[in-house]
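Quick question about two entries, pasted in order.
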Amino acid sequence: MVTDSVPDFVRCHQIRVDRDKPHHGLLLFTNDTFPRHRHDAFVGQLLAVLESQLLAYPDDNDSSWVRWLTKNG
């Protein structure tokens, strides 16, 4: 899941972990890092970072990982 709804999804993550129900991971970002109001830049920047995440972590599994997205990958 890729989201900037950090409080909601961190809460969901914790509930699943507490219930021993793994998920395939969370990629979190903020509007400060990837401003949505600049749609032309937002989409391109976010896609580039998502691609770098896929390349950096090709073997991700259902271990309930959580990572923050940054403009540097």
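Here is the second entry:
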Amino acid sequence: MSRSIVHMDLDTFFVSCERLSNPKLNGLPLIIGGTSDRGVVASCSYEARKFGVRSAMPMKFALRLCPQAKVIKGDMELYSNKSHEVTAIIEDQAPVVEKASIDEFYLDISGMDKFFGCYKWTSELTSRIMKESGLPISFALSVNKTVSKIGTGEAKPVGKLEIVENMVRPFLNPLPIQKIPGLGDVTSQLLSRIGIRTIQTLSEMPADVLQQMIGKNGIELWKKANGIDNNPVEPYSERKSISTEHTFEKDTIDIPKLKALIVGMVEKLAFQLRSEKWLTSTVVIKIRYNNFDTEIKQCKVAYTSCDHLLINKVTDLFDKVYERRMRLRLIGVRFTGLVHGTYQIDMFDDTSEMISLYQAIDKMKNRFGFDAITRCAGTTMKDKKK
């Protein structure tokens, strides 16, 4: 049976959320991101893109290209709430849903064409999303995740596209190689230098030659260029979480020691989030007193994977949950409500230097181990004496 995979993408999601809250922004070139000269563009409207503005661009440079643009810092709480709203609508109707990011979804509706037309069913779902959420959305329906994702990019804005099995290659062939999901700038430039600029040219290369050129990802890239992708749609669940706990050898009431431990725990979990390309929307702290009474407190946060934001939230929760001033025997931290994404989602508050710092730190940790570089606040007095 041929698969029917849908990719849905909320068009200029952050911009659309802001315009929903303030219709006066409609039609204006709009940039969302850090508002200082050293800030970074998190998102921009199609009106701003016409001037060459792009995500991850330094704000200072973006305003040179489009000086008339209106700049907004962004409201991640609003975006998170709207993302949850759209997710609930999709999960209410679709049999299998994968939430790929805060504004991106895959649906496996294979077999539904026996009862409904898959394209008609998806069109009706997107109409419901736009009516109930007020947000524009595009989709593409095809035989796998790769082709559907590329199709959505071609359908935008507010577009619909179906690529049936026998039209996959004719659809992909004329497109530039940059349209392939996961193809980085370095690989793209390497291929362009040897004359490989379209997906068709790339698909006609021998797979083993491509692997020799760019390494282990060569085979996967060749498959994508040929419209081959057997990856399943992974059912999305808010119950996914990562956590860590620490049981003390001797029960303690040392607040500085406890907070230093919390910082280290959060830092480690946040690094895991970024390594696995997750964002969390809920933080949880657990404490156990020496009489074995256990207290748990949690709070919602704007999707993030940044240490400095999560540390503040978790330490605030600790101050609220630790009320008895009794000795503790255990402390734990958990992040839940995970969706796929990267720390560039935090560009609203962070400068380009902060984003670069996280990238540099993670690179060092990946190369030399997590303990190669840590926050001073996450180092206990015992560690400092070593």
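Reply: The radius of gyration is 23 Å. Residues 241-385 form a domain with the Dna Ligase; domain 1 fold (CATH 3.30.1490.100). Hope that helps.
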